[in-house]
Design a protein that fits this description.
The chain is of the alpha/beta class. The protein is about 45% helix and about 15% strand. It has a single domain, classed as Divalent-metal-dependent TIM barrel enzymes (TIM Barrel, Alpha-Beta Barrel), CATH 3.20.20. Helix 8 runs parallel beside helix 10 and helix 10 crosses helix 11. The chain is globular.
Length: about 280
């Protein structure tokens, strides 16, 4: 397995500086954020080349946005731009394009699932020549209601999108705070994992008791190894399914400078995550 990180932690720094750091710190791979480090489809090739010149594997390119936005104009614009990025990414040979399903709050669940599935099936058909894989992360969104981000949601999408070029960027941290067993969730989708996000979650039991699941301040995202997940168990489980792809650290740990605080502290967080994951993998 390769270990990389998602560049969004350094969206205030130029990509050249970010990939220089990744290479010097000993990472194998990089996951590039469109919003922070690419911006437009015509810049995809140059961004990928920057990373490859430093012998970094570009595991994926990630593009935020609500693909089911209730505003028809916004949805149409995002989907048009997504298609342009898909074409550009496919031409570089980067294997995975991560997008987010979102939700149309004005439509039913079935309409949301049908709409997103029809859209993704179209993207898959349009990129047949490149073989690009489209993945969604199980981040439930700012309202915790994005479609396709729970085990039940996965079932709904997979029965509508049977092609294996639709897969998951599996992030256990979100399940840890939403009451879903991440190990059971991983087992249920073992043949549809494109990339793993390395992020953990810590829970403050006293705060949880005080405010309940719908309250605030009882959980925090952490670097791998600093939260509740048993990473040895999790990665051994993934390997048993034949996963040998990229583990991408998504650094959102406030104790290590996130978001956008001291740069050296953020870099140290990435190094801490890398060192921990190397140790875990060495012992598997």
């Amino acid at each position: 397995m390769r270990i990389g990180f998602y560049t969004s932690t350094f969206n205030d720094r130029p990509l050249e500086e970010v990939v220089d750091f990744a290479a010097s710190a000993g990472f194998d791979a990089i996951e590039i954020d469109v919003g922070g480090h690419i911006k437009t489809p015509d810049r995809v090739k140059a961004a990928v080349s920057l990373a490859r010149e430093r012998n970094l594997f570009v595991s994926s390119i990630t593009y935020f946005g609500n693909q089911l936005d209730a505003d028809n104009a916004k949805r149409k614009d995002l989907r048009s731009r997504t298609a342009e990025f898909a074409q550009a990414i496919g031409e570089t040979g980067v294997p995975v394009f991560v997008i987010f399903p979102g939700r149309n709050d004005d439509a039913s669940d079935d309409v949301n699932y049908d709409d997103f599935a029809t859209y993704v099936n179209g993207l898959i058909a349009e990129t047949a020549s490149s073989g690009l894989t489209f993945a969604i992360e199980n981040w439930p969104g700012p309202k915790d209601n994005f479609v396709g981000t729970t085990p039940k949601g996965y079932e709904e999408l997979f029965k509508r999108i049977p092609d294996r070029r639709f897969a998951l960027e599996f992030d256990p941290s979100h399940f840890l705070r939403t009451g879903i067993d991440p190990y059971l969730a991983l087992d249920a989708v073992k043949d549809r994992i494109a990339i793993l996000h390395a992020k953990d979650t810590a829970v403050d039991a006293t705060a949880l008791q005080a405010v309940g699941y719908h309250g605030k301040g009882w959980w925090q995202y952490k670097l791998p190894g600093l939260g509740l997940l048993d990473w040895s168990r999790f990665l051994k489980q993934a390997r048993s399914y034949g996963f040998d792809g990229t583990i991408s650290i998504e650094h959102e740990d406030a104790a290590y400078g996130w978001p956008g605080k001291d740069l050296e502290t953020r870099k140290e967080g990435e190094r801490v995550g890398l060192g921990y994951l190397r140790t875990v993998l060495d012992k598997l």
